[in-house]
Amino acid sequence: MFGLVVRFTCKDQQSAEAFDRLVAETLEGIKEREPGTLVYVSHLVEGEPLRRVFYELYADRAAFDAHEEQEHTKRFLARRGELLASVEVEWVTAQVGKGIAS
């Protein structure tokens, strides 16, 4: 499996609301067209209303590459920049845990 954790900081409350709408739109495409995307979750951060944390898990690198080529993903990547103050990406490899095949 192949995954990443992404931390986003929105510019302001209005940007955070627009970002959440953009994420919801993008998620519809992911659900409909990406069987190799196993987990794609946007989290709110308690006490930090402008922060979002994504956890993404893909069947393999090819599934991630297919995700990046989707029109809904390209639209998300093109539009998010105007809403964000920062982006931090950490690439992760599943090791052990509930729901993770060993």
How does this structure look, described?
- The protein is of the alpha+beta class and 102 residues long.
- It has one domain: Alpha-Beta Plaits (2-Layer Sandwich), CATH 3.30.70.100.
- It has helices spanning 13-33, 61-69, 71-80; strands at residues 2-10, 37-45, 48-58, 84-92.
- A 4-stranded antiparallel beta sheet has the order 2-3-1-4.
- A hairpin with a 2-residue loop joins strand 2 (37-45) and strand 3 (48-58).
- The longest helix has 21 residues, at 13-33.
- The mean pLDDT is 95.
Please tell me how large the radius of gyration is.
14 Å
Order of the strands making up the biggest sheet: 2-3-1-4
CATH architect. name: 2-Layer Sandwich
Helices, by number, come to 3
- The CATH class designation is Alpha Beta
Instruction: Give the helix level as a range of percent.
Output: 25-40%
How far apart lie the N and C ends? 11 Å
Number of E strands: 4
Question: Would you give the CATH topology?
Answer: Alpha-Beta Plaits
Task: Tally the structural domains.
Answer: 1
**Secondary-structure element order, N to C:** EHEEHHE
**Beta-strand percent range:** 35-45%
Structural class: alpha+beta
Largest sheet: 4 strands, antiparallel
Q: Uncertain runs with pLDDT below 50, 5 residues or more? A: none
The shape is: globular
Overall average pLDDT: 95
Protein name: ABM domain-containing protein
Domain ABM: 2-92
Organism: Actinocorallia aurantiaca
